[in-house]
Design brief:
5 helices, 7-stranded mixed β-sheet, Rossmann fold, alpha/beta, 7 strands
Amino acid sequence: MTSTKDAAGTFLEARRIAVTGVSRTPGGHGGNVVYTRLRELGYDVVAVNPNADEVEGDHAYPDLASVPGGVEAVVIATRPEHALATVQEAVDLGVRHVWMHRSVDRGSVDDEATRLGREHGLTVIDGGCPLMFGAASDRGHRIMCRLMTLTGRVPRTV
């Protein structure tokens, strides 16, 4: 097992990251928050939404396979029932790092998707948010990380 902190560090070393479930109507949607913060930090982020041509002012792709040049990592910010298909696509495309976003609710975490990814050698972070770690974090997310680790919403190891 790897500590989530170490796995998060490796995940955030990727420079090209897809965020699935980025919404056309952002509001406070977690996927959009992650997407825009990573973009502000200089990451090459790619929006994935099969129902949108554009989100957050950027071109959106219907799936990971449609992204020209591929990605190194993916944040899943969709409903949990979509996570399995995304993890399978990551396996098929050779994407090695997957993060299933989770805040105060169930988020995108799906146990079967986690199992599938790990069986195929992917590092799967099944909870929490990339904005809780490293240079991507802010004070609010770091506080949330501590509290959510205590409640099990952020795993201690992956």
